[in-house]
Amino acid sequence: MTAAQHEPQRVELPDGRLVAVTNPQDVLVWPSLSEDSPYADGIADLGDGDVVIDVGAHIGLTALYFTDKVPGVRVLAFEPARRTNACVADNAARLMPGVRVFDVALGAEPGTAELTFLPNHTMMATIVSDDADDERNMTAVLSNFGVDDDTREQFWRDFRDGAERYPVQVRTLADILDDEGITEVGLLKIDVERGELPVLRGLRAEQWPGVRRVVAEVHAVDGNLDAVVELLHRQGYSTKVFQEDVFVGGSVHIVSAVRPGT
Questions:
Q1: CB burial class (10 A; 0-12, 13-18, 19+) of residue 221?
Q2: Residue 5: its pLDDT value, please?
Q3: What's the CA angle centered on 179, arms 176 and 181, to 5 degrees?
């Protein structure tokens, strides 16, 4: 199914700023980002002029968090899903000076891939589709929020309603850094629904020393979590792995990695 054109709507954050969204539930993550962010360690040593690579930018709330907390930070935001890319582009233009938006996915090799987009759950857009993992994680989320049976039934009825699949361009992070003339990255943030390892494999060996910190949401499926941690250790990082309360019982973990001495 091809994607239809949709104009972004705007929703007000608690501080009064209007953000473009695919649907109002997009902003539900803002309190956890702004008050108890899993990225807090990742921005601990960032300053004016530092570069953040935001892979899987969605509507741009993480980029907004970065620019709020670190004035002058430079963010490259990658979001291949059409509707969400329109939102992050709108938000960047109005709210986030210093943020550039790219409408491509990142992977281990350049090319194209099929993206799966769920209009009712746009944060789950991915080029690495896995229905069983999606259902496991959403079951965990519903349980952890104490959602009642009737609401769960409605949730699952609507879960994949209107699903879209279409090809998107894939580039490597190595090529992006070359094109942009970037040799130092303060933070590499990744949230791409099971596509984390290919993003990391898209860097060349000589580029890794220039990446100070990595914070990635990693799905523990098919050995993915262990492989990500092993790769980061091989590149000289110390790592911390933890799971946010909302995902207990699911596969989603946060891997926070720092290069010693930074």
A1: middle
A2: 54
A3: 105
pLDDT one-digit tens code per residue, 187-205: 999 999 999 999 999 999 9
pLDDT tens digits along 145-163: 898 999 999 989 898 899 9
The position carrying tokens 């807090």 is 40
Question: Quick check: pTM over 0.90?
Answer: yes
Which residue's structure tokens are 């019982």? 249
Specify the pairing of strand 164-171 against strand 105-106. Answer: parallel
pLDDT digit string (tens) for 215-234? 999 999 999 999 999 999 99
Q: How far apart are CA 212 and CA 260, in angstroms?
A: 9
For strands 74-78 and 99-102, give the pairing.
parallel
- CA–CA gap between residue 112 and residue 97 (Å, rounded): 30
Q: Is the pLDDT of residue 22 over 50?
A: yes
SS3 state of residue 39: coil
- Per-residue HEC secondary structure of 68-84 comes to HHCCCCEEEEECCCHHH
- Residue burial 17-56, b: 16+ Cβ < 10 Å; e: rest: eebbbbbeebbebbeebbeebbbebbbeebeeebbbbbbb
Q: What mean pLDDT comes out for the span 90-101?
A: 95
Nearest Cα to 94, choosing from 187, 25, 8?
8
Question: Under the phi-then-psi rule, with left for phi > 0, alpha for psi from -120 to 50, and beta for the rest, what region is 105?
Answer: beta
